[in-house]
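In this section we walk through a basic example: taking a raw amino acid sequence and producing a predicted 3D structure, encoded as discrete structure tokens. The instruction is simple. Fold the sequence below.
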Amino acid sequence: MRSAASGSDWREAEMTVLHVPSGDIEADRTAIEVEGVAATVSRITPGGESSGWHHHGDYHIIAYMLSGTIRVESGAGGHVVSDLTTGDLVHIGPRTIHRETFIGDTEIAVLSFWTGSGTDRVDVPDPEPAD
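The resulting token sequence is shown next.
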């Protein structure tokens, strides 16, 4: 694949490779953040614990399930339920009120990419049920 760098030869473009060895990636911490995009690896112990109702402000989150199962509830009264398992991909849009429950007996590992700005987590009361 060729990439044009401001009309100049691609070989003259500034290139950067940032390598973060797996042993240096802290659980649930941003591993790489560049130009408005953050990559995060989350490792969570299963057991039925819930994250509580929240949203992620103006952030878009795209996450890929590496292992385990997470139940995501959203919508009026939390009636929209998705069980995410290994190999699943999910997008959580800005200000989408939701909660995660960490289920099963397999360690949960998620690779997520965040883009946006502002506060990255806002805790909220339980959503009102639909009429």
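Looking at the output, two observations stand out. DSSP finds no helices and ten strands in the chain. Residues 1-5 have pLDDT under 50 and may be disordered. In the next section we compare this with other chains.
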